[in-house]
Amino acid sequence: MEEVKIPVEFPDGGHPLEQAPGKPEQVANLVLFLASDESFHVTGTEIFVDGAELLLRG
């Protein structure tokens, strides 16, 4: 099977999310949310706590 490659064009310059690495408190906030009743509709999905770095870097 041939792999399909989709070209991605990034804008020139940096992106606004270039910050310091994530903090443990940010992950803890997600865990707290998932453990609460507020997350009752979240099921079976991966959640990345990376400030969208994965989306921007591919």
Residue share in helix:
25-40%
Residues in β-strands, percent: under 5%
Low-confidence stretches: none
Number of strands: 0
Q: How would you classify the helix and strand content by structural class?
A: mainly alpha
Q: Give the count of helical stretches.
A: 2
Biggest sheet features: none
The rounded Rg comes to 16 Å
The SSE order reads HH
Q: Quote the average pLDDT.
A: 79
State the separation between the terminal residues, measured CA to CA: 22 Å
Anisotropy-based shape:
flat
What does the secondary structure layout of this molecule look like, with pairings?
Blueprint: H1 24-35, H2 53-57
Describe what you observe in this structure:
By secondary structure, the chain is mostly helical. It has a domain at 16-37 and 49-58. The protein contains 2 helices and no strands. The protein has helices at residues 24-35, 53-57. 0% of the residues are buried.
